[in-house]
């Protein structure tokens, strides 16, 4: 299918991009990696009058550590750049490993962390592990900028709180006490599959006590979600298999999956329980190192 005609814009700076978006309003769509937008245009799901490419905004492709702040990733950082980042491998290996599960090498070379977030789909792989790591985001526009916890960004199925004219500029993972973290997902093929269910976990362990935990679910509700009941249940308790199994049950009970071609709601709910227990065990083992 042929794409509809559109005007193409390639601003040279972030300020120029924000100005363009303010001028064009709802007649424009942002192009980052293009793995989702261009596909939707080809199949007729999107027909923007204007396409605003961010390809020249190299400042949004960096991964750096800022003392007192943490790891800062530009929104245009590709999935493969996350996977190969020595900085991330040393500090938060769970994030590169999550990026490695996402898609083919070609798509991972083009797809961006910002696109994976802004799409707002509940099956996205990077938001769960980023939320588990307590990430925040920075949104910019001609009106200024605002920051928020990533978990507050998602409003509904494929809906976010991003305002007209805003761009996602970067994501920050704060410096934090020694933790273990992981992301596990179940898909319908060995690699590059959408998550039937995904579970991200981060923990802080002291001896045999689980001091803190964050449990985040993908494809288990209309949006990516934290299983706060499971987190509260785990906090401060002695680690054992029964504890982790019960936490999995609480996460499953909190989930709100739907029936789809990839799995029934009941099947997904069961997967939440199984993957939560496994992810907790893996993260705890890592946190003991």
Keyphrases for this structure?
289 residues, alpha+beta, Uridine Diphospho-n-acetylenolpyruvylglucosamine Reductase, domain 2, Uridine Diphospho-n-acetylenolpyruvylglucosamine Reductase, domain 3, Enolase-like, domain 1, 3 domains, 5-stranded antiparallel β-sheet, 34% helix, globular, CO_DH_flav_C_dom_sf, FAD
State the separation between the terminal residues, measured CA to CA. 53 Å
Instruction: Summarize the main sheet.
Output: 5 strands, antiparallel
The Rg value, from CA coordinates, equals: 19 Å
Report the order of strands and helices: EHEHEEEHHHHHHEEEEEEEEEHEHH
Overall strand count? 15
Helix content: 25-40%
Q: What CATH architecture of the largest domain would you give?
A: 2-Layer Sandwich
Q: What's the pLDDT, averaged over the residues? A: 93
Number of helices: 11
Q: Number of folding domains?
A: 3
Please state roughly what percent of the residues sit in beta strands, choosing from under 5%, 5-15%, 15-25%, 25-35%, 35-45% or over 45%. 25-35%
Q: Strands across the major sheet, in which order?
A: 4-5-10-6-7
> Rough shape?
globular
Unreliable spans are: none
What is the SS-derived class?
A: alpha+beta
CATH topology heading of the largest domain: Uridine Diphospho-n-acetylenolpyruvylglucosamine Reductase, domain 3
Notes on the structure:
It comes from Geotalea daltonii (strain DSM 22248 / JCM 15807 / FRC-32) (Geobacter daltonii). The protein has 289 residues and is α+β, with helices and mostly antiparallel strands. It has 3 domains: 7-53, Uridine Diphospho-n-acetylenolpyruvylglucosamine Reductase, domain 2, CATH 3.30.43.10; 58-174, Uridine Diphospho-n-acetylenolpyruvylglucosamine Reductase, domain 3 (2-Layer Sandwich); 180-286, 2-Layer Sandwich (Enolase-like, domain 1), CATH 3.30.390.50. Helix content is 34%, strand content 26%. It contains 11 helices and 15 strands. It has helices spanning 14-24, 37-42, 79-84, 86-91, 94-100, 105-110, 113-118, 126-132, 228-234, 241-254, 265-287, and strands at residues 7-9, 28-31, 50-53, 63-66, 70-74, 136-141, 144-149, 154-156, 159-160, 167-174, 180-186, 197-206, 209-218, 225-226, 237-238. A 5-stranded antiparallel beta sheet has the order 4-5-10-6-7. Helix 2 links the parallel strand 2 and strand 3 (50-53). The longest helix has 23 residues, at 265-287. The radius of gyration is 19 Å and the shape is globular. 44% of the residues are buried.
């Amino acid at each position: 299918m042929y794409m509809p005609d559109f005007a193409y814009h390639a601003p040279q700076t972030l300020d120029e991009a924000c100005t363009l978006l303010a001028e064009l309003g709802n007649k424009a769509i942002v192009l980052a990696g293009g793995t989702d937008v261009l596909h939707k245009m080809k199949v007729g799901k999107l027909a923007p009058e204007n396409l605003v490419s961010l390809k020249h905004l190299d400042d949004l492709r960096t991964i750096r550590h800022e003392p007192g702040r943490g790891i800062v990733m530009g929104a245009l950082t590709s999935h493969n750049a996350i996977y190969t980042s020595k900085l991330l491998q040393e500090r938060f290996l769970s994030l590169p490993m999550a990026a490695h599960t996402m898609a083919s090498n070609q798509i991972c070379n083009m797809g961006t962390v910002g696109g994976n977030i802004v799409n707002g789909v509940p099956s996205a792989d990077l938001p769960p592990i980023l939320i588990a790591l307590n990430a925040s985001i920075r949104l910019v526009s001609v009106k200024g900028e605002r920051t928020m916890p990533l978990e507050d960004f998602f409003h509904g199925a494929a809906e976010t709180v991003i305002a007209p004219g805003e761009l996602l500029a970067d994501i920050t993972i704060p410096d934090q006490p020694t933790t273990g973290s992981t992301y596990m997902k179940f898909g319908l093929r060995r690699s590059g599959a959408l998550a039937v269910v995904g579970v991200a976990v981060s923990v802080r362990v002291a001896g045999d006590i689980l001091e803190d935990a964050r449990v985040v679910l993908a494809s288990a509700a209309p949006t990516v979600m934290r299983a706060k009941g499971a987190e509260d249940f785990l906090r401060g308790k002695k680690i054992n298999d029964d504890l982790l199994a019960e936490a999995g049950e609480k996460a499953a009970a909190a989930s709100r999956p739907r029936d789809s071609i990839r799995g029934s709601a009941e099947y997904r709910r069961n997967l939440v329980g199984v993957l939560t227990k496994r992810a907790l065990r893996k993260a705890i083992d890592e946190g003991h190192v």
